[in-house]
Amino acid sequence: MLIEIVIVVAVVLTSMLSGVLGMAGGILLMALLVSLKSVAAAMIIHGVVQGTANGSRAWLLRRHLAWKILPPYLAGAAVSFAAFASIAFLPNVHWVMIAIGSLPWIALVVPKLNGVDVTHPATAVVCGTSVTAAQLFAGASGPLLDFFYLHAQLDRYQVVANKALTQTIGHMLKLVYYGGVVGVSGDGVDPLFLALSVGAAVVGTRLGTRLLDRVGDGDFRRVSRWVILGIGAYCIGDGAHGLLVAI
Fold it and tell me: How many other CB atoms are found less than 10 A from the CB of residue 63?
């Protein structure tokens, strides 16, 4: 029971964090779930909770959605899903954590990568392909998705709204993949606990979107960069630790 309480509280806090920054909450929640539950249960819980949190965030900020991003993003997502479904691949999450965590640092070190902008159709296709692959591969893709939005010509409301919509799509595809294609079970996840977690995600999202009104665009960009780099470093460390433990 204590583990379930910890997870519900974490869902509220991580949903608030994502509601303000449009990022970070999902990867932090995934890290916690994997440390407390089996990988199978973590995938199911994370998909349902984060799908709800991002879906409600996208709905609350729906007037800020840039719909032109969606068609090319969906095209890229379809490519990844079809590729994974064709082989029913079960990934090594440690290597993927290292890869995802490295991307924000690569963007910082290589100046020409700073021009990546998800509002460009070709970039949106690449975003949909890579982000969906990361969702199916590791269960989370926050730092990778952030990479495509940091230099997008969008204000903070548009960034948070559009990232929420694309993340919702990713989490739904993850549930379809693990629950249907691969056939992973939830390892006896309590439906009542899952319902409480979903409610906590909605509450946290609502609180986070209210806090967003108090954050200026300049502060938003500055804080976003450091949060992304910090999460990237954490992902690299977590993945490397997992590989060492497995040796």
Answer: 8
What range defines the domain where residue 239 resides? 2-246
Q: Tell me which DSSP letter residue 140 carries.
A: -
Cβ neighbours of residue 151 closer than 8 Å, sequence gap 6 or more: 114, 115, 116, 117
| Among 190, 160, 181, 198, CA closest to 52 | 198
CA atoms within 13 A on the CB side of 112: 0
Q: Number of structural domains, the chain?
A: 1
pTM value > 0.85? no
The residue-averaged pLDDT of 225-234 equals 79
**Cβ-contact 225, 33 below 8 angstroms:** no
The gap from C-alpha 51 to its chain's centroid, in whole angstroms, comes to 9
- Closest among 141, 33, 44, 29 to 96, alpha carbons compared: 141
